[in-house]
Structure to design on (286 residues):
């Protein structure tokens, strides 16, 4: 039933509607996981992963049909017009993603229990405080037997290289997942939405009134970064769908492959830009 709510064509004309859909899907995921699995002593420890899984299940039909629509465009439109049309789909995806972030952040604060986002908090600590991983997860209400990470201080250049390399890996996984599973890259993107939400709430010190400042801190580089992942997801999905249709034996496939490679190159350039903002600009502003 939920998959009938959205029409890719309509959402490209009114992309802001995807914000409310994202809020609804994310909220429904959190509520269902807490309702179904909260009393289970084993599965409740993995609520963070289950929340992502439910959100992906709700979003998958829309993402798949959008990719199918974009694949059809690849065969009929010229280069510049094609990139413009793909941009409409990316814009709609971004509104969906922002809806996820706002809803996950809201529920993180309202529910209060860090166990709902246990995996996300551990990921946050492993990225932002690897030197004191154990104390970081303990500070945020998570008990862990992990001894932690040991690293020395890093230069700004090394930090930029590490962030860009990590983001490039995420882009590669988004492309590969989408080639194999069609809209499979949405799992990686939804997971990133929950991690960003956890980071925002931690930065805001669990004060809902500080969320706008926290949102600005992470979205200033997060929007281009996530846009790059969506571009990669779209490119991989277009290639995968073309392979499923057995178009690799035709001239059309090479046109689609060329279009997808251009999208991936654009995504890499955007990631480079986002990394520069994250390392050199964001710390100065916040």
């Amino acid at each position: 039933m939920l998959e009938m709510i959205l029409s890719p064509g309509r959402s490209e004309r009114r992309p802001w509607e995807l914000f409310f859909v994202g809020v609804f899907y994310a909220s429904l995921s959190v509520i269902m996981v807490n309702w179904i699995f909260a009393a289970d002593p084993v599965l409740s420890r993995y609520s963070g992963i289950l929340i992502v899984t439910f959100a992906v299940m709700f979003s998958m039909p829309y993402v798949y049909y959008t990719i199918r629509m974009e694949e059809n465009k690849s065969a009929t439109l010229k280069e510049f017009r094609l990139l413009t049309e793909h941009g409409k789909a990316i814009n709609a995806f971004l509104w969906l993603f922002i809806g996820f972030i706002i809803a996950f952040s809201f529920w993180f604060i309202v529910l209060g229990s860090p166990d709902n986002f246990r995996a996300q908090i551990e990921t946050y600590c492993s990225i932002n405080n690897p030197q004191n991983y154990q104390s970081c997860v303990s500070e945020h209400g998570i008990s862990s037997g992990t001894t932690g990470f040991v690293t020395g201080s890093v230069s700004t250049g090394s930090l930029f290289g590490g962030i860009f390399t990590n983001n490039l890996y995420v882009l590669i996984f988004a492309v590969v997942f989408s080639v194999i599973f069609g809209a499979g890259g949405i799992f990686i993107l939804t997971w990133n939405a929950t991690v960003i939400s956890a980071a925002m709430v931690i930065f805001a010190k669990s004060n809902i009134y500080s969320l706008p400042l926290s949102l600005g801190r992470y979205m200033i580089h997060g929007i281009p970064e996530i846009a790059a992942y969506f571009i990669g997801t779209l490119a991989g999905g277009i290639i995968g769908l073309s392979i499923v249709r057995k178009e690799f034996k035709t001239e059309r496939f090479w046109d689609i492959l060329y279009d997808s490679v251009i999208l991936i190159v654009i995504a890499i350039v955007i990631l480079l830009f986002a990394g520069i903002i994250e390392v050199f600009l964001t710390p100065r502003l916040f």
